[in-house]
Design a protein that fits this description.
12 helices; alpha/beta; 7 strands
Length: 309
């Protein structure tokens, strides 16, 4: 076992969720070897062609990563691990929301503006994640162009922004990508909608945290109305201009928003989660042209964090 590879305990937790493979003449080559190859690339950020030979042909590793990013297999694995943690009471549902800008490499530019409707290698879309039988999964619809592929120009240069919500133990619960120049506040509703941890038995997934912590970028009235409508307590500081405007309106300005400074100290969990994610070099710098493949890369990093925390 090489540095950074899945341990036997980690593989045992994932193996039952993967499609059967490894038999001679079958569709899939050895899953564990290929996943370790993907993990090596996510951890080091090397070019796919430079993968060590012990992971097999680099084309196999890359195509498996691209396919599973497209059909939702990586997200399915992450959801299964989150389900097991929630059933054991291991998720702290006081969540924090924030974002981070990621510099895009020059190789991330140049994606096709109009991806073909024909699926990759003649396959069909709509396969079940990780269990697509003999069919093959095509690329997701949409995308193309810088905005469609979540690339933009910000003060940091050519960037992509990762919006995420993290639990109280510094693990990602939901991820959203936008171009680097997009603001944080308008993405609060979208990123919280990514939180959906399935139950082990009957019942709908859990989507509502116990409390949301966020900084002043999320303090808009629209965000507060959304959180109140869903019945989610929140700790978000008020900006100085909002306080001044409310006081100038007198009695029509309404009551000041509640703010618990002690609870707010816990918001550092999302900053530490971002630090963990950026420990993976293929996350800290974006090399992928297509946004869905880069999102798959971040999802793998999140999966490793969940497995090892």
């Amino acid at each position: 076992m090489g540095r950074g590879d899945l341990t036997n305990a980690e593989w045992d937790r994932l193996e039952s969720f993967l499609p059967p493979g490894g038999a001679r003449g079958g569709r899939w080559s050895d899953h564990r070897r290929v996943i370790n190859g993907v993990l090596y690339r996510v951890r080091t950020g090397v070019q796919w062609r430079d993968l060590p030979e012990r992971f097999g042909p680099w084309e196999t590793v890359y195509k498996r990563h691209r396919r599973w990013s497209a059909d939702g297999t990586w997200q399915m694995l992450l959801s299964r691990i989150q389900t097991a943690e929630d059933a054991a009471g291991g998720i702290d549902w006081d969540v924090s929301v924030d974002s981070t800008a990621v510099r895009a490499h020059q190789h991330a530019a140049g994606a096709r503006k109009a991806p073909s409707h024909r699926s990759s290698k003649g396959g069909r879309t709509g396969d079940e994640p990780g269990r697509s039988g003999t069919t093959k999964t095509g690329r997701p619809a949409g995308g193309g162009g810088q905005i469609g592929e979540c690339l933009g120009r910000s003060r940091g240069g050519f960037t992509t922004k990762i919006h995420l919500v993290a639990d109280g133990r510094c693990r990602p619960l939901g991820l959203v990508l936008t171009p680097g120049h997009y603001g944080d506040g308008p993405q609060l509703e979208r990123v919280l909608e990514q939180v959906a941890v399935p139950r082990t038995g009957a019942g709908r997934p859990r989507t509502r945290p116990d409390r949301v912590l966020a900084d002043k970028a999320y303090t808009s009235r629209m965000n507060r109305r959304y959180l109140r409508r869903r019945g989610i307590p929140h700790t978000i500081p008020e900006r100085l201009d909002q306080k001044r405007h409310r006081k100038n309106r007198g009695s029509r300005g309404g009551r000041p928003t509640a703010f618990d400074s002690e609870r707010y100290k816990k918001r550092n969990t999302v900053e530490r989660t971002i630090n963990r994610l950026k420990g993976f070099r293929a996350v800290a710098t974006r090399y992928e042209k297509r946004a869905y493949i880069y999102l798959g890369t971040i999802t793998i990093a999140a999966l490793v964090i969940w497995l090892r925390t």
